[in-house]
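chain below, 320 aa
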Amino acid sequence: MPTMRAAFATRFDDTDPLTALAVGERPEPTHPADDWVTVEVRASSLNHHDLWSLRGVGLTESQLPMVLGCDAAGVDPEGREVAVYPVVPTPGDPRGSSILSEYFPGTLAERVAVPRANLVPLPDGLSLADAACLPTAWLTAWRMLTTKGRLDEADSVLVQGAGGGVSTAAVVLAVAMGKRVYATSRDAGKRERIAALGATGIEPGARLPERVNVVIETVGAATFDHSLKSAAPGARIVVSGATAGHEPKVNLRRVFAMQLEILGTSMGTPGELYELLTFCAERQVRPVVDSVVPFSKVEDAFARLRSGDAFGKIVVDHTA
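prediction:
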């Protein structure tokens, strides 16, 4: 059976997930349906989803070994450069769909199979490495700001917990849209990096100079009260994660008195990914890259992600 080089989960370890990571040979991708194609992966990027998979979140023992990775860019069967939209139809899942590396092998491999409709052509001027950062975290941030947050109607935005993939993307995109951006971080060094991106870095819980029209929430319980207090009348608080607690206390009197909207979202559509790629190419917006690691040292990329020190995306170069 033909094989390829891949990084995959062999078991689960909640305490030390990196010990569950293996790098080696896996079977070539197969096509569950006639409309699936194989993409030659040139670059991918890591997400916390990959660490959660190694911990056993979203996977079962029967699905192992599972090739990890959600994000990728590469070359389609016709030789065109494409970004891979990572959400695939999954009839057996209650959601009706899943993200790559949940039911179907992921992108941390030489090749990945997806429906042809999941291939989004790269616009001129956008590299494969940059495109590999966009389909998950950046797409989520784009949808939070545009479709859900309606940032075109707003002047200001607060991003909680900047430094992570989604929140850093939200800062860069909102600045590129010409909005006043505030972003929180407990780390003084990260606040300085936020300022270098064009936003105002503030400590968590600090009073803002103004109430904002949109709040980007990926932190959860630790910051949600601050998000409510920082919201202007009619503001949208858009939630796509809860890294610091998923059951915050919510002052409902503030919600109805200020007529706030609390909106949940996850990922985006292929059309929104195309919009994001086009926006980045036309506005000369590039993802914040923490580091580029050759696939031969992919274990180092996972260690960097787990350390919590990364600022922006960790890119894996599949050509090295």
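The longest strand covers residues 36-45. The chain has a mean pLDDT of 96.
thats it, cya
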